[in-house]
Amino acid sequence: MPGNMLSKGEVFVIETDAASREQLSNALQQSAYDVICFADGASLLSEAKARMPACVLLEMPPDRSALDVLKRLREENCMAPVLVTSANGSIAMAVDAIKSGAADFIEKPFRTHDVVGRIDAAIDESVQPDSSRQRWLPGCEPLTAREGDVLAHLAAGLTNKEVARRMHLSARTIEGYRASILKKAGARNVTDLLRRIFGLGSPSQA
């Protein structure tokens, strides 16, 4: 981190690729973050109990053990936003990560400056929480504030990529939120969902 800049906080990182880890560390330090890298989830969890990171960046290995780390962080009331990265991402994995408390899901290969931007956005949102705001669909489980925002953009006719740009998230993350919204609403697709929202009948059962 440049010596004349005040720290914006610590970012905990698990990243097995040495080149990516070095690039991320350098970019985050240039953006005034202190970076602490960990070899595994157990060491990160142990340190998280004694410190208060501004953000956590978790690599998702093939065994998906990062989800366990994410759940433990939430169980232990670590309020830092957690971003999950994966070289083998899928919609199902993104949905699981979001359900477990991830703020964003980023597919590899990624551009380092994009990750730093997503970390900035996640931290900005976390310090101005809107957790009391939830949105309901008739007869359905309530949507979270973030799901409500995604739904509002989808209802305005935006594509996943357009929503991702508006919300400073990855397109895969938006796909994950969309899948979660559809599941809660019992809708097969966005068209069915919008019919319910705008009072044009219940989702199709065909």
Structural account:
With 206 residues, this protein is an alpha/beta fold. It folds into two domains: 118 residues, 3-Layer(aba) Sandwich (Rossmann fold), CATH 3.40.50; 54 residues, Winged helix-like DNA-binding domain superfamily/Winged helix DNA-binding domain (Arc Repressor Mutant, subunit A), CATH 1.10.10. The chain is built from nine helices and five strands. Helix 1 crosses helix 5 and helix 7 packs across helix 8. The longest helix is centred in the middle third of the chain and has 15 residues.
CATH topology of the largest domain: Rossmann fold
Strand coverage percent: 5-15%
Give the distance, in angstroms, between the N- and C-terminal Cα atoms: 57 Å
SSE string, helices as H and strands as E? EHEHEHEHEHHHHH
Number of strands: 5
Provide the domain count: 2
Number of contiguous helices: 9
Average residue-wise pLDDT: 83
The percent of residues in helical segments reads 40-55%
Q: Give the overall shape, derived from the CA principal axes.
A: globular
Give the C-alpha Rg: 18 Å
**CATH superfamily placement of the largest domain:** Response regulator
Could you list the spans in which at least 5 consecutive residues all have pLDDT below 50? 200-206
Query: What is the second-level CATH architecture of the largest domain?
Result: 3-Layer(aba) Sandwich
Strand order of the largest sheet: 2-1-3-4-5
User: What structural class do helix, strand and pairing data support?
Assistant: alpha/beta
Characterize the largest beta sheet: strand count, sense, and whether it forms a barrel.
Answer: 5 strands, parallel
**For the record, what CATH class of the largest domain applies?**
Alpha Beta
GO biological process, one term: phosphorelay signal transduction system
Protein name: Response regulator
GO molecular function, one term: DNA binding
InterPro entries: CheY-like_superfamily (IPR011006), Sig_transdc_resp-reg_C-effctor (IPR016032), Sig_transdc_resp-reg_receiver (IPR001789), Tscrpt_reg_LuxR_C (IPR000792), WH-like_DNA-bd_sf (IPR036388)
